[in-house]
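[Q] Does anyone have a clean structure-token version of this?
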Amino acid sequence: MHELSIAVAVVEQVEEAVREQGRAVASLTLRIGELAGVVPEALDFSFGLAAEGTALAGARLLIETVEARGRCEGCGREAATGMPPVLWCAGCGAPLTLLGGRELEIVRVTLADGPLNGKDADDGSRPAPSGPPVRDEEASHVPHR
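[A] Here you go.
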């Protein structure tokens, strides 16, 4: 399950970026392409584990799924590639160049109000884990076709 290593890397990067703020993370938004080979549910679970004992403990993980799209090298037509991807043009049969769908990006980090655990930032404290993050399905996950 490579989602755990992705979750650990994301938590480390975000924690490093917010360290100077001295505040917990309320939510984290990732943009993930449908061709990135990431299972959103597995990443959501892994994020909860990776975030325990960090400034991201209890943060909501929001996932924006990016549809895989390609442009035809022959006729210039743009279209969704589908899943699994079809990498040739339905109109003329020429190969498609991928335009999107392989993304794996940290898009937004929202900090919680107040310092970590209500204490000063430089005392090394971290928020107490409050369980796995809650997914906001309507706002966080653009459904596949």
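[Q] Thanks! Anything notable?
[A] The longest strand covers residues 104-115.
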